[in-house]
Amino acid sequence: MALARRLVDARFPDWAGLPLRRVEPGGSDHVIFRLGRELSVRLPRHPGAAGQAVKESRWLPRLAPHLPLAVPEPVAVGSPAFGYPWSWAVSRWVDGEPPTVAALGGSARCARDLARFLTALRDCPTRDAPGDCHVTTGLAERDQATRGAIARLAGVFDARAMTGLWEAALRAPAWHRPPVWFHGDFHTGNLLAAGGRLVAVIDFGELGIGDPSRDLTIAFTLMSADARAVFRARLGVDEATWTRGRGWALATGLNAYLHYADTEPRVAAQTTRQIGQALLG
């Protein structure tokens, strides 16, 4: 808290009088603070998140007018100082709470809203995007780590079923259409709901251009089977893309479970559901 206060006051003295409050739970990539009533401050926790402030400040204002749900509105980018080594972000505060399976998992309206958002994101122009936004890595690059996770968690989940799904995802035909925008980390923790419906999508640190199948993870973190069917139909997902999406849900779920399940019961429960639903399809 003290470091965040010093960073804000030194870089943006006009905001020095605004109260600063840490938001819990935060995320694995950022420590989050609410600054006054209208602003949020996000400080990266590790080098892998260090470029997000600049990326969001550049791209979200261009994408936001095309999207049917709110996204973060960048206000400023803070500079490294006082021994803190990375750029950090100030954005408009967005009210809402992460959606829960109990509240929205079975909602066909929620499924349609998510499909509409992803369709709009994929339709956003890509012609001005720089080369570092184009992501060519896919499931194959995660093969060794995912097989290792399957072996380590064989006593927790069905290793034979996980191996079968993973190998099917690796065999699935690749995305051969033009590359499109994807969120890249599309799960319940990066959505906000209010009044019984979705209102915003946040945390675009993995934003990129390429195969959109990784965004299908949301179908397995949030939705029931019936809502998932609505989502898939509205999005118009072919079998190969759906199978790759199941592979992404399995791989990312296993990775998160290995890293956080022992210390974060909330993450353990979420990733257990994600893995189980991915196996169901």
Task: Set out the fold topology.
Layout lengths: L1 H10 L8 E3 L7 E6 L3 E6 L7 H12 L10 E5 L9 E5 L8 H4 L3 H16 L19 H10 L6 H13 L8 E3 L8 E4 L2 E5 L6 E3 L7 H4 L3 H11 L3 H22 L4 H16 L1
Antiparallel strand pairs: 1-2, 2-3, 3-5, 4-5, 6-9, 7-8
Helix pairs in contact: 4-8, 5-6, 5-9, 6-9, 9-10
Class based on secondary structure composition and strand pairing? alpha+beta
Per the CATH scheme, the topology name of the largest domain is: Aminoglycoside 3'-phosphotransferase, Chain: A, domain 2
For the sheet with most strands, the description reads:
5 strands, antiparallel
Largest sheet: spatial strand order: 1-2-3-5-4
What would you say the CATH architecture of the largest domain is? Alpha-Beta Complex
| 3D shape | globular
Count of DSSP H/I helices: 10
What is the terminal separation in angstroms? Answer: 43 Å
Task: Give the total of domains.
Answer: 2
Protein described:
With 281 residues, the protein is α+β, with helices and mostly antiparallel strands. The chain folds into 2 domains: 91 residues, Phosphorylase Kinase, domain 1; 180 residues, Alpha-Beta Complex (Aminoglycoside 3'-phosphotransferase, Chain: A, domain 2), CATH 3.90.1200. The strands form 3 sheets. The protein has a 5-stranded antiparallel β-sheet, sandwiched between helices. A two-stranded antiparallel ribbon has the order 6-9. A two-stranded antiparallel sheet has the order 7-8. The chain is built from 10 helices and 9 strands. The model has no long low-confidence stretch (mean pLDDT 94). The chain is globular, with a radius of gyration of 19 Å.
